[in-house]
Please model this.
Amino acid sequence: MDVLQGFADKFGIIYALLSDEGGKVIRELGLLSDRVDEQHAAYGIPKQDRHRGLPYPGVFLLDAQGRVMQKRFQQSYRERETGVGILAQGFGVTSPVHGPEAHGQSEGVKVRAYLDTDTYRFFQRLWLTVELTIDPGVHVYARPIPEGYIPLSVAVAPIAGLVAGAPSWPTPQPGRVEGLNEEFFAYEGQLRVTLPVTLTEEGDDQTLAVIVRYQACSATDCFLPSTVRIELPLKAADHVERPRRH
Amino acid sequence: MATVTDFGIDFSHIGPAVGARFPDVVLPDQHGHTLSLHEARGSRRALVVFHRSAAW
Model:
């Protein structure tokens, strides 16, 4: 109890922290991880007795009747989602506040990028959102796309330890080029693309460089292909404990 | 969902299934009070988080 009380005080936790001494409930629920030794080996961490009886790390989302709506589990004990990330991705509850935000633009298109949190922890999954606001009468190409056109793409410039997941794209609208027998898909108005990003190296404050590439066209003209680079500063959170390295 | 380190674990058959009622859990909390998950939840939705340890 003292350990939980100390943990709750340190992080200002007001929800219930339950102690499953000996992992009895974890075993009954079938959540005891038998992969800890394998994961320790992969991360270069020596085996320790106190690391026995760990659950698979993850979250159950329960509905008002107590039924499981969704399971969100991680492959290893190092990985975790943020609280705001779970609420947004799982319950669709978006936080009114978010992390660093920055803007860019080109002719006909405004781009806004933001992270869901100000700080990162080692192996924590953060969510990056890129929002495009496209002028009326203008569209941006999506995939699938005919040869020679440039679809909207979002990437994060590589830095040591960065793992960026696949973006989730909104559904584009089908279209046809007048006079040409070509079908294409495009976005109009406002759209948001989200992707998970994780930093697997502990350490210092970082800057994520988000690279958004697209080609915007009106019914009659196309603008030059645009590459908008948006930089988002991200602070390293204080670590509870530095991961052991060898 | 993107994974950082893929250990090839399929969670669809691990633990209570999607759609099933989550079993009640009765355990002591950080204040030493015994708490029942479903009693504490009442008729609200809940997040049940399994975390490796508060000490490690």
